[in-house]
Amino acid sequence: MELPKDLHYSKEHTWVHIENKTATVGITAFAQKELGEIVYVDLPNVNHNFKQDEVFGSVEAIKTVSDLFMPLSGKIIETNEQLLKEPTIVNSNPFDNGWMVKIEIEDLRETENLLTAEQYAQLNN
Q: Which residues, in sequence order, are CB contacts of 82 under 8 Å at separation 6+?
């Protein structure tokens, strides 16, 4: 299972890349594999605020729909518009072009609630 070590992970299968007070959020390769081929992605509007662990969108696979949970509190500053046209990017590239949203982090201390790559791997073995 691919797990970049420079990312943080949530128990709800999202990954987070943090630069200063900006976080890029996507779903993990484990989540993508469990869901199967993703055919639709529902993302929030820019400027919408979310609390940690709040549902911020959903992904639809051929046989199921799964909610997306925000790993950190913050305001949406960008969404990956490309996923609206090509949701299968999440299947082929969940950690790069398959990112979902970028947020302005409200409280960096919430990163203490996230997992390292090793902790996330242990949780999903």
A: 89, 97
Q: Which tokens is 51 given?
A: 């609390």
> What residue ranges define each of the domains in the chain, with the CATH number in brackets?
8-123 (2.40.50.100)
Distance CA 29, CA 1 (A): 7
Amino acid 1: pLDDT: 66
Residue whose entry in the numeric block shows the structure tokens 């709800």: 12
pTM: 0.94
Return the amino acid letter for 121. A
* Continuous H helices in 15-73: 29-35
pLDDT tens profile 77-108: 999 999 999 999 999 999 999 999 999 999 99
Beta sheet of 49-50, edge-to-edge order: 8-9, 14-19, 22-27, 101-105, 74-79, 49-50
Angle subtended at Cα 54 by Cα 52 and Cα 48, rounded to the nearest 5 degrees: 90
Task: Give residue for tokens 């691919």.
Answer: 2
Q: Rank 13-17, 94-98, 120-124 by mean pLDDT and report only the highest.
A: 13-17
Supply 71's token pair.
């790993």
